[in-house]
Design goal:
Layout (H helix, E strand, L loop, with lengths): L6 H15 L12 E6 L12 H18 L3 E3 L1 E4 L4 H10 L3 H19 L4 E7 L3 H16 L3 E11 L4 E3 L4 E2 L2 E2 L7 E10 L5 H7 L4 E2 L1 H11 L2 E10 L5 E6 L10 E4 L4 H5 L7 H13 L2 H6 L7 E9 L6 E6 L11 E4 L5 H10 L7 E2 L16 E2 L10 H14 L3 E6 L5 E2 L12 E4 L3 E4 L29 H4 E3 L6 E4 L7 H4 L2 H4 L12 H7 L4 E4 L7 H14 L11 E4 L3 E2 L16 H8 L1 H10 L7 E2 L2 H16 L15 H16 L3 H17 L5 H11 L4 H10 L23 E8 L2 E9 L14 H7 L6 E5 L3 E5 L1
Parallel strand pairs: 1-2, 1-25, 3-4, 10-26, 13-15, 25-26, 27-28, 29-32
Antiparallel strand pairs: 5-6, 5-9, 7-8, 9-20, 11-12, 11-14, 11-19, 13-16, 14-15, 17-18, 21-22, 21-24, 23-24, 29-30, 31-32
The structure holds one RNA strand of 83 nucleotides.
Length: about 800
Amino acid sequence: MSQPYNPEKIELKWQKNWEQAHCFEAEASHEKPKFYALIEFPYPSGAGLHVGHPRSNTAMDIIARKRRMEGYNVLFPIGWDAFGLPTENYAIKNHVHPAGVTKKNIDHFREQLKRIGFSFDWSREVDTTDPAYFKWTQWIFLQLYKKGLAYKSEMPVNWCPSCKCGLANEEVVAGKCERCGAEVIRRVKSQWMLKITDYAQKLLDGLDDVDFIEKVKVQQRNWIGRSEGAEVDFALEDTDEKLRVYTTRPDTLFGATYMVVAPEHAVVDRLRARIQNWDEVVAYREAAARKSDFERTELAKDKTGVELKGVRAIDPVNGRSIPVYISDYVLATYGTGAIMAVPAHDERDWEFAKKFGLPIIEVVAGGEDVQKAAYTDVADGVLVNSGFLDGLSVAEAKKTIIDWLVEHKVGERKVNYKLRDWVFSRQRYWGEPIPLVYCEKCGWVPVPEEQLPVLLPEVDNYEPTDSGESPLSKIESWVNTTCPHCGGPAKRETDTMPQWAGSSWYFLRYADAHCDTALARYDELKYWMPVDWYNGGMEHTTLHLLYSRFWNLFLYDIGAIPNKEAYQKRTSHGMILGANGEKMSKSRGNVINPDDTIAEIGADAFRLYEMFMGAFDQAIPWSTEGARGCRRFLERVWRLQDMLTGEERVRPEMEASVHGMIKKVSEDYERMKYNTAIAAMMSFVNELYANSRVSRGELRALLLCLNPVAPHITEEMWEACGFGEPIYKQKWPTWDEGKLVADEVEIAVQICGKVRARIMAPTSLGREDGAKLLEDETVKKLVGDKPVKKLIFVPGRLLNIVC
RNA sequence: GCGGGUGUGGCGGAAUGGCAGACGCGGCAGAUUUAGGAUCUGUUGCCUUCGGCGUAUGAGUUCGAGUCUCUUCACCCGCACCA
C-alpha cells in the first residue's frame, strides 16, 4: 500500500525541486519555436491573492506546461503592477513609506503564487516601481512627447473628490470613480494628455489581424466608436461667423429646423454682443457646468436649453433661416460641439423640438407620422421635401449631398471617433514622475534621456491636497531644478503617471527583463513578440488592453520594437463569485481565501477545482463541497498506485479509452474547455476503478494528461512508479485516431424519431449501410409488417426508421 | 435606449442538427468498519401501470431541434444624449 496522499509535503518538495532545476525559465537560445504565454501581472494589494488570480494563472499555466512538453521554448513570466492608489492610501494611513508597503505586499504575493506551483519564469520578474523599470516608462513618455503625442491642456477633467485625483474617461463608470465609487465631478485642470485619438484608426484596423475573443473586439470597436458622416458649415445671419456641425445624416439637411451648440461652445462668447438674452444664457451655462456627469446622465431624458435670441443660422441647401439654441444634450467634446437638428429623423432632436415648439419636417418618407414620433430606422426610406435629393434612397442622398457640399465649399466628408485623448496626469505621489521641467524661458523641456530615471523624492507626507496639486509640489528641493536647455531655474512637473503607464509595456520588458540599454533588446523582442496568448479580465478591455495596444503601435511606429500588435490571441476568464452567487467582497462576507483552501485540500486540488468548477469564460459561484470533490478525485488518482499491474503497455481493451482521453484532453485544453478535459480524466479513472486494475502504460498516459492541471501529485507518482525523467522533461502524449473506436458500437434505434431500442453494430458500417440493420432481430420486431418509408442511418450513433 | 451574452435536474454544468442531463456536488441504498464527516459498489430529471412529459416562452424548418429561423419573457455584462 502506498503512503496516504499528503499534498503539502509533495507540493513543497516539487516546488523546491523545480526552483533548483530552473526548469521553467525561458531558454536564452532562439533555436526552438517560441511560445509566449501571458497573464495580467497582479497589483500586489495588501489583501493578498484573491481566488480570481489563480483562475487565469492556472489556465495559462496549463497551456505553458503543455507547450513545453510539445517542444516549445516557453516564456511564461510574472511581475508586479505595483504603483497605485491603494498602496499610497495605506501608507498615508499608517505613516509608512509606500515603497516599503509595496515590497511587503510583493513578498507576500510571491510567496502565495509559489505555493500554487505556477510554472512562472521567476528570473524575469518585473516591478513597475523599480527605477530600472520605470526609467523606460519615462523614456516612452518622452518619445510620445517628442512626437507630439503628449501635450498639456487646460480642460475639464473627471475629478474624483474622494481620491483627490483626476481620472481618465475609461476610469469613470456610470458617473462614478471606478476605484472608490465616489461621484465624479468636472473640474478644469491643466493636464498631460496622450493623443490616443491619433491611433483610433490603427487600433481599429489592428483588430482584424488578431485572434481576440469576439466580445473583446466588439467592446473595443464600440469604445473607439467610429462613425462616418460630414461636416457642414451654416452661416450665421448678419455676421461673418460660420457654425460648423458634424452629422452622420447629411442626407437630412433639408429637414434641419434649428441648431444646437454645447453650452461651452466658443461661438457663444463671440456672439455675446448679438445675444439679447445674455443673462439667461449665462445662467444656463453655469447650471450646466455645475452638473456632474452623473446628474447629466440622470437628467438625460428631460431636454433643457435656451435659444440664443438675436442669432439665426442659414441652412446652406435651401437658405432657410433657423434658430440657434444652447443645450447640454450636445456635447462639447464630440464632433464640432454643434449640431443641426432634424427632429423628424432623430429622437433627441424630436424631443427637444416638441418641448420648444419647433417645426418638424419630414425629409425621408416611409415611416409613421413624424409629428408623432421620429422616424430614424430609415433603411428603405426615400427622400422627400428635399429639392434635388427627392426620390433618392438614403444611401444615394448621402453621396449626392456630400458631393454638393464639397462643390459649394460648405462642407466635406468626415469620420469621427468617440474615443477621447487619454488624461495622463495624476495628482498623487505613488506613480512615475513625468520627466519634464518647466522653464520660464524655454517652456516645457524634456529631461535628457541620460538623466532618466527621474526618481521620486523622499517625503514625509503623501497626503493629496484639496487644491488639486500633487503632493510632490510641496517638496521644493525636488521641484526646483535647472532647465536642461538654458541652464536657468526651472520647475519639475509634479503630476505623476497613472497606474496604466507601467502596465502599458510590461509585456515587452519580459522579453529582456534586465536590459539597461533599451526597454528590451530588439533581437529578443524579434524572437519573443508578439505575445502568443494573453488571458485576462474583461474589465480591462477598454483600459489596459487598449492602452497597451496603443503604446505598442506607437513604439512600432518609431522603430523601437519590431511588431505592430502586442497580442496575437486574447481570451478572458469569468469571475469567481461567492457561494451565494454574489460578487465576492469583504462587506458581503463571502470571500474565499486561497491560503485556507490550499491548507485544506492542497494546491493541486485547488487548481483542479478552479478549472473544473464550470465553463472557463463564465461567472461561477464557489462551492467548498465541489472543491473537496476535486481533492477526492486526486485521492482516487493517488490510490491507482495500489492497483498497478506489472504490465508495461496499455492493455488492448483499454486502448480506445486511453487514446480517447488523450485526444479529448489535448483538444479541450486548447479550447480552454478545462472542465470537460478534467471530466474526461475522471471518467477514465472511473473506468480503471471499475476493473480494479491499471497497467503502467495506462497510468503514464493519465499522469501526463493531468500534469498541467495538477503538476505536483503527478510528478510525485511519476517518480514513485519509476517512469524515468520528471514529467516536465517528457513529451506531450499523442493519440492514434485509428485506435479511438472499438469494433462494435451501440446504435440507438428510433421509430419516427423515438428511441425504441439499442443494438450493437459493427463500427465499419457506413451511412449507406443502414438497411443491413433491418435484418437485426430486435429491429425486425420493432418494425413488424409496417412498410419502411425512409431510413436514416448515422454511423456510430443511430438508425431512424420512418414507417 | 444601443451593443454583447445567458436561460438545461435540488446545485455547478455536458451535449460537430442524431440516444438530453457526461463529469462533479448534494441525496438515497448497500458493502466494509467499533464508528464514519473515510473508502468501495449501486442508484438518483419529472409523472407513472403500459407508457408519457421534459432544455425560459410561443410558432416554424427537419426523418430528427437544447442546438437552426422568427416571437415573447427573464436575468447578467458593457456603453449610454457620440448627432
